[in-house]
Each structure stands twice: as C-alpha cells, then as structure tokens.
Amino acid sequence: MPKRARKNYIKQIKLASWNVRTLSDVTTSKRQAPERRTALVAAELGRLDIDLACLSECCIPEEGEFIDGSYTFLHYGKSKDQPKQEGVAIVLKTTLRSSVVSWKGINSRIMRMQIKLAKSCHATVIRIYAPTFKRPIEERTAFYDQLSDVLASVPRNDRLFLLVDLNARVRSNYETWFDIIGQHGLGQENDQGIMLLELCARFGLTITNTIFSHQDIHKGTWMHPRSKRWHMIDYVIVRQHYKADLTDARDAVLIVGLTIGWCVRGESYDSTSPPNGTNTQVLDASMSPV
Predict the structure, then answer these.
(1) Which helix (H) or strand (E) holds 206?
(2) Which among 29, 76, 120, 193 has the fewest CB atoms less than 10 Å away?
C-alpha cells in the first residue's frame, strides 16, 4: 500500500523594516499631483518581492487599514487633532492578509502582529520606533517600560521578530553581554544602547546584527550627516533559543532600510543583493515549526 503523502506546511516569508519619513501626501497647486507615497512604497516593496514590511515615521493619524496596489497597509498613529508625527505601520501582500491572526497598535511608536506560519506555528512581529536621545529621559524610560509589557505578553511558543528603529548603539562587548550580542558590533555604546541590552537580557533576546562577520560597510544602518560615519542603530532581534537557526545578517549601505528573509527549516532561502539605491539588511533564518 503506497504511503500517504505528507502535507507540507513549509512557508517562506521575506520581511523588511523601513523608516519612510512620511506617508502623508503633500498637497500641491500644480495640475499634475505627485504619485501617492503609499503607491511608491508598494511599488518598491513589490520590486524587491517583500512579503511583509514594518514601517516607522509614517505620520498617518489613528488606526486603519487600506489596500494600495498588491499590498495591505495596517497603520496606527496619533489622533487627527495632534501633529502629524511618528506613526507605525505593517504592510503585507494582500494574499497574506488571511494569515494574520491579530494586529494591534499599542501607541504611535509600537505595533504588533501575530501571523500564522504553518500548522501550530505562529510568529509575532513587533515594530518599534523609539524616541531619540534628545527626548527627556523620563519619556525614554516610560517607552521601554511599555515595551517590556508588550514583550511579556507575547505567547511563549511564538517566533518573535523585533524590527526596531531605536537610535541605540550597542558596540561589541560580547564578554559582558554574552548571548545577547556577538563579536561584530559597530561603534561605541550609548545610553540608549545600554537600555536595549538590559531589555534583551531580561527577555532572553539576541541582537542578530552583531553575530555575523562582515565589513563595516555592511553593518551600518545610518550615516551621520556631518562626520559621514556609518552607525548601527537599527536592529533585528530574536529570542536566544532560536539563534542557532540563523544563517546570516547583514546590511548593504544604500538608502532604504532593513530587509529580513527567513524560512521554516527544510526550505532554503538564498538572499540576493538588492539593486543600487536600496539599503537592505538581510537575515536568513531556518526555523522548525513548534
């Protein structure tokens, strides 16, 4: 009697993180209005074949959902009577919308989504856009306290991906922060970086950017406008007990943001270099269903 075919739940998803500066369209008196910013973002994500992207500094008010092109935008921001600042969004291919179990905007800087990867296998994706070091320490402390509450509520068996724009520098002091960072950080740590490291130590997280050896040009995610030096201030963070599943993490020094590609174990993912004009961090991770 022939063996029954085994159902394959393996799935591949390519994630991205992008500080878009704004998605709010500029009004113009010219006869031909510029193309919608959301349409430009959707076109760029489509060109790079991104399945799910986390955006920050969107400047779109309140909570909402809409479709532009082949992508669905889920966003959360400040109320309409407040200044158009901050705001986060998660954008995914409309064909994947049915895989979303739930999504929620915590505030204008934090947003979370749970998505089904396979049978009994889920992932929680959290977009984080932290206050800069110029903000009062009380505001930054309150932000990390709220972020701690969000992390504590993530289901224990979920794959966890934090795509963060934190303006934090963590260096490469891996002997002090063993299992949290690797030997390949960049620059000197700052106060924001220490707060991030303490948060990772509390929740058993690993900053993947620092694990793999690459030239400094492939580590930086932001260039200082005066010194022209590249700094690592954007991170992809996962739980430590899934660290062994990672195969690579790097950043190409161009202009867009971060891109993460990963798949369930058993299916390989070969990341390719993006075209010029795209700043992309690539993370390949092979993972087994829970």
Answers:
(1) strand 205-207
(2) 29
Query: In this structure, which amino acid lies at residue 185?
Result: G
**Domains observed in the chain:** 13-22+35-287 (3.60.10.10)
Burial 153-185 (b: 16+ CB within 10 A, else e): ebeeebbbbbbbbbbbbbbbbbeebeebbbebb
* CA–CA distance, 260 with 75 (Å, rounded to integer): 20
**Structure tokens of 37?**
């910013």
Q: Token pair for residue 43?
A: 């076109």
Per-residue pLDDT of the chain (290 residues; tens, 9 = 90+): 455 544 444 356 777 778 888 887 765 555 454 568 899 899 988 987 888 888 988 988 899 999 999 999 999 998 888 887 889 999 999 999 999 999 999 999 999 999 988 777 888 999 999 888 788 888 888 998 999 999 999 999 898 988 888 777 787 676 778 888 877 777 777 888 888 889 999 999 998 877 777 776 667 777 778 887 777 777 888 888 877 666 566 553 222 233 444 443 323 223 333 333 333 344 433 333 32
Angle, to 10 degrees, between the axis of helix 137-152 and the axis of helix 191-203? 20
Q: Enumerate residues 6+ apart whose C-beta is below 8 A from 217.
A: 230, 253
- The type of residue at 265 is R
Instruction: Round to whole Å and give the CA distance between 126 and 114.
Output: 9
Q: Which helix (H) or strand (E) holds 16?
A: strand 12-19
